[in-house]
Specification:
By secondary structure, this protein is an alpha/beta fold. The chain has five helices and five strands, in the order βαβαβαβαβα.
Length: 133
């Protein structure tokens, strides 16, 4: 079964770039343009990874991250932003983000971070399975 990924960004060019890099047989990629819509999608669907922009209208990515981690702590969230600010990166990591990428990001770097997040999920699931035996 392919991994489910939700991409949340208010810039269509970023969404198209991520879909181009990750789309295909390995991943099922859904997209939304704002935080409110992202929270609805996450409540209605199971996602393995969320790729989340920080600067968005209505609800910013930090608040979406906070809510996702409260309700679905098992989802790995990768933060992306055009602003390379250390304090924002630190805040998102403290709130439970898996990783943080600055725009424009390298396609190979994005693939690597998503692969690492999915490998971590697989190891955690394997660990839980072994503990339940």
């Amino acid at each position: 079964m392919s991994a489910r990924i939700l991409v949340v960004d208010d810039e269509d060019i970023v969404i198209r770039s991520v879909v181009r890099v990750l789309g295909g047989k390995d991943y099922q990629v859904d997209t939304v343009n704002d935080g409110v819509e992202a929270l609805r999608k996450i409540e209605d669907n199971h996602y393995d990874v969320v790729i989340l922009d920080i600067m968005m209208p209505n609800i910013d990515g930090i608040e979406v991250l906070r809510r996702v981690k409260e309700s679905h702590p098992d989802i790995d969230v990768i933060m992306i932003t055009g602003l390379s600010q250390i304090d924002t990166a630190v805040k998102s990591m403290k709130l439970g983000a898996f990783d943080y990428l600055s725009k424009p990001f390298d396609p190979d770097e994005l693939k690597l971070v998503v692969t690492r997040a999915l490998e971590r999920r697989a190891l955690l699931q394997e660990n839980l399975n072994l503990k339940s035996v």
